[in-house]
Amino acid sequence: MDMFLGCNDLSVRYYNRSEHILKNITLSINKGEKVLILGPSGGGKSTLISTLAGIIPEYIEAEVTGQVFLRDNVGIMFQDPDSQFCMLHVDEEIAFSLENRSVPQTEMDNIISDLMNQVGLKVDKKTPIDTLSGGMKQRLALACLLALEPEVLFFDEPTAQLDPAGRKEILEILHRLSQKTNQTMIFVEHMLDGCIEWMDRIIMLNEDGNVIGDGEPEDIIHHFTNEMKEAGIWRPKLYPSKWIEVIENPSHPLSIKLSKQFKSKCQTAMKDYKIENPVISTENVTIGYGRKSIVKEINLTIDKGEWISIVGENGSGKSTLLKSLIRLEPIKKGNIFIHGKELTNWSDRELYEQVGFVFQNPEHQFIADTVFEEIAFGGSQRNWPEELIYAKTKRLIQEFGLEDHENKHPFTLSFGQKRRLSVATMLLFDQALLLLDEPTFGQDEKTTYKLMKQLKERQKQGTTIIMVTHDMDLVDQYSDRVLLLNKGKMAYQGTPFGLFSNRDILQKTKIIPPLHYQLMHERREEILV
Amino acid sequence: MKVNHSFLATINPSCKLFSHVLVMLLLMVITDVKVTFLIWFLAVLIGLFLGGWTISYLLKRLCPFFGIFILIFWMMAAFGKGQETIWQWAWFHVTQESINHGLTIAFRMLAFVTYGLLFTSTTDLTVFIMSLIHQCKLSPKWAYGLLAGIRLIPLFQSELNQLKMAHKVRGYKEKNGWKMFLSYAVPMFTQGIRKSERIAIAMEARGLSRAKNRTYYRTTKVALKDGGYLVSILAIVIVMIIIFR
CB distance A328–B169 less than 8 Å? Predict the structure, then answer.
């Protein structure tokens, strides 16, 4: 058989596991094809592309049976922007690829400039890599791959660790590149918006590592809706409909759905809110180190039981603001009050009984050896009676769906479970205020909505929630108010409806509102025209 | 390690390192106060005239070491042995010999620090590693691995800060030092191993070990002035040793 790229009856097993991760897979991928591989996490998607790229079993050990048809020149892009570089500056990093290919030194400078243009990396060649944003790092990673002049490009969740703006940038560049060069590209992604529109083919894996679907994107989306939902894949909001159709045809099903959503939002937006029982308030707070101020002149008051989202571009100071509310960042000017008492007057112990903080990386918070001990930790430190600890911990374990994992080590949980555990550990004292730093970052659709539901439940019981996020759909669906930071200053404070219907602010701060608002803006424009 | 635009920054890093190490070796066998002082002073002069240092930079960098200087001097001087007692009170016993000893050791320490600083403040890290490949025949595999490892240091620093914050919020206090260490070390190690494994795979996937006739983007050569630097610095030191012995 003469194949461009593919495998025949391929099975893969890692030596430390008894089960095969991939079973009897037969695939043939044609030159120039854009293929998307989908499946549940742990279902072997990454293993499949690593095998097709030749990394398994060459650099990652595993037992591989069956035939694999490889290409000699391939490039593979990984999800973590920080762990694919080995040099300190941009030009050296691209040169590393060229050096490996033995390109003469005299040609390198021109090639490097060309590649940087091609991926839209408009920075000085000597820029240190650590100073680049996540999106820029992935552009650089792409330039490094193109420097290899690969026949096939593999992408292992290239945008999983980027914010929506960075994600959009990267996918647009890839799309443009694919049109220009007709490069063969193979993707693993768990968020379909932005890439499914230009894929030729989708391969769907199941949990056991079998191929269950292989075909045109539209058919697969249609046939495997439930499997995708189960696998936690972020299904496209628009595809296979076309935006232009939705705008022009008011009787389009999606158009009707969006209009309905918009109307119901309109109604909720009419309610005014009054602050009766402020949990936390700030007066002219400026945060920063030395002479530098990261966030300036913040005034806000948050009522008991509110759900607040903090949004803004990367580097706008969202996390810094959130951390300053519990003294994790130094305040230069102004005051913060929690329950009417100045922040500096709280002792650590009292403060953290009132306020819980969920960090972006759940692993940082874990200190105990089992899930049970992890949640019970604060109680045992305060010498609570055994029965009380037991009762409260059990309740939290149940609330966050961790019953089956009570005795496991926190580090062995899945990503979604780790996240839920990190939230549960912050609720042992029934904290009145819960601060969350991008709690859904990198999570799949299923675990995201599970977490949101649990938080909503908590909010109903009176917990105040302040969450930093990039996901505007969550902002729209769950929060009562939204704070928008732009370059360290408060640019908007009010209902999500107010923010998403204000086109000027959206454009200035590069925020992309949920679809139903976009539809409304388009409609309005049409009326004006 | 950041480079400035001085003459010293243009010297081949391996050559520079070799010269400084030779001077340091000589320092170890010299027991004379005057010569030790002069060798240290030579480093200061090189820094100011060839290394692009300003007086304020020099003072800022060496300030903490002056503290150690006094400490070492006092320890050696006040408790040393010797015949010619200068001053004696309670258990302090200062002699001519012990003062000499103290000053020699203290200046030796200061000279070591200054020569080290002279190297790090004028050498670009990447160029240094490249020079190790070209002049010291270090295998590229090790050299690039070393660079990748150095990149991880700032990442670990921010990781540690995050961990500290998270522990603070959870009210984690551990009196047992070993357990405390583990609570930081385990997550950092797991993260470190995971990251370095990923980096290694990424580097291999880009063909690090497949390269047959590897070319280099940056090459370093040994020129006449590099040899000149080595010879003149050694000559000055040796002349000083001979004259002031």
Answer: yes
